[in-house]
Every structure is written in C-alpha cells, then in structure tokens.
Design a protein that fits this description.
Layout (H helix, E strand, L loop, with lengths): L2 E5 L3 H13 L3 E5 L2 H10 L4 E4 L8 H8 L6 E5 L4 H9 L4 E4 L4 H15 L5 E4 L2 E4 L4 E4 L2 E2 L4 H12 L5 E2 H9 L8 H14 L5 E4 L3 E4 L6
Parallel strand pairs: 1-2, 1-3, 3-4, 4-5
Antiparallel strand pairs: 6-7, 7-8, 8-9, 10-12, 11-12
Helix pairs in contact: 2-3, 6-7, 6-8
Length: 221
C-alpha cells in the first residue's frame, strides 16, 4: 500500500486521518506545521501528501510551491472554501482539494483515485490466497481466475479499499453502484453471499449487526 504524509496542525484531525489510513493498510507520517513537513520531505520518500492550507510557520500553499519539483501527488484538506483558494490549490499542482468538514470515506475514496492515477503498483492487493487486481478487474484464488459479475467486482473493490471499516448496506450501495435510496439493500446481501462463496471469505467478510459488513483483514501479503 501507499506511504502517506499527513500535514495537519489540529491533532484530533491528524489522528483521525492517520488512524483510518492505518485501518485500510497504508503507512503514514505526521507533520503538524509546514516547516516540519519540508524537513521531513528532505529525508523521507512518500507516495502522497495530505496537506492543510492554514499551517503554522509555513502555510500549505507556500509549502506546495517549495516541493512541487518533487512531483509528489498532493490533496489539499482545508477549511478555506473560497473559489480563489481552490483555484490557487489546483494551479499549484494539487490533485484534489477537499473542504472541511469531510466524510472519512470520501477522503479514502479520493485517496484511492489519486494513488491509482500515479502508482501502478497500488492496483494489486492480496490476502489469504486471493489476489485482487483493480486495474485489470481480475481476481485470482490460489492462482486460478475467479469469475465475478461486474456488480460483484464493484462491491469487492469497495470492500478492499475500505477494509477493516464497517460499512452500512446503504453506504455500500452508494459507493459500489451509485444508489442513493432505500429499498434495495437486499441486493447487497445477495452479492455479499456470492463473494463469500466464490472467494472462500466466509470468515473475512463480517456481518455487522443492524448495520452492514466489514472486510476484516489482520495481515496482508
């Protein structure tokens, strides 16, 4: 998975982001001001930077100006929601610009998009004999191709990208297939049943009582 630098001066927000990055399998580094982040980038290699704008010592825009030659993907996460600020962020080379407050699942989804755009290696993931190749939309179990329908693969992709996070049936509908209404949650149950059977993941995909499901992974290949 990816190595991500989180540059955010508010410790609760920094902790929330990094906790969820760890849950889905990413490594992370923390910085609480722009100067520390700049020093860290002189010594560390990262795949992505999550960057606040209003930082002590060196603000996010100025930090971006100083590091853009490194060609590291950057997602701004900030309360500065004016159009002029967003334009500045993109003109400096940011890949995305997220306004606080934000939903953690939306942040993780946007991280996935940016990483996939920049890192070919990110598209492969495997656990317990099952390999999921996101770019190729292929799944292998013990080296053999597993035939999944388009909807089964889309649901699997959401589970993989949000592993160890409990997702409601409604959220799974929304993330996997774009549904935004009640009454179709049974289709999630049907496809979960199929994924468990085809992948041998009866113990990996946990049912969360009165909520939905979680792909539970304690160790990854």
């Amino acid at each position: 998975m990816a190595r991500i630098l989180v540059v955010e001066d508010e410790k609760p927000i920094n902790d929330l982001i990094t906790m969820n990055l760890k849950l889905v399998g990413h490594e992370f580094l923390k910085a609480f001001d722009g100067s520390s982040a700049l020093s860290m980038l002189d010594q560390e290699t990262v795949d992505l930077i999550l960057l606040d704008v209003m930082l002590p010592e060196l603000d996010g825009f100025e930090l971006m100006r100083r590091i853009r030659h490194l060609n590291i993907p950057v997602i701004f996460i900030t309360a500065k929601d004016a159009l002029a600020d967003r334009i500045t962020g993109f003109e400096l080379g940011a890949d995305d610009y997220i306004i606080k407050p934000f939903e953690i699942l939306e942040l993780l989804a946007r991280i996935n998009v940016v990483l996939r755009r920049h890192t070919k290696e990110y598209d492969g993931w495997s656990v317990e004999g099952v390999e999921v190749r996101l770019a190729e939309r292929q799944v292998y179990k013990n080296g053999q191709v597993v035939e999944l329908t388009a909807r089964e693969f889309e649901l699997l992709e959401v589970l993989v990208q949000n592993r160890n996070i409990a997702l409601s049936r409604e959220k799974l509908l929304e993330l996997a297939w774009g549904y935004d209404f009640e009454g179709e949650t049974r289709t999630v149950d049907v496809h979960i049943r199929q994924l468990r059977r085809k992948l041998g993941w009866e113990d990996c995909i946990k049912t969360i009582f009165k909520l939905g499901y979680r792909l539970e992974v304690s160790g990854e290949a």
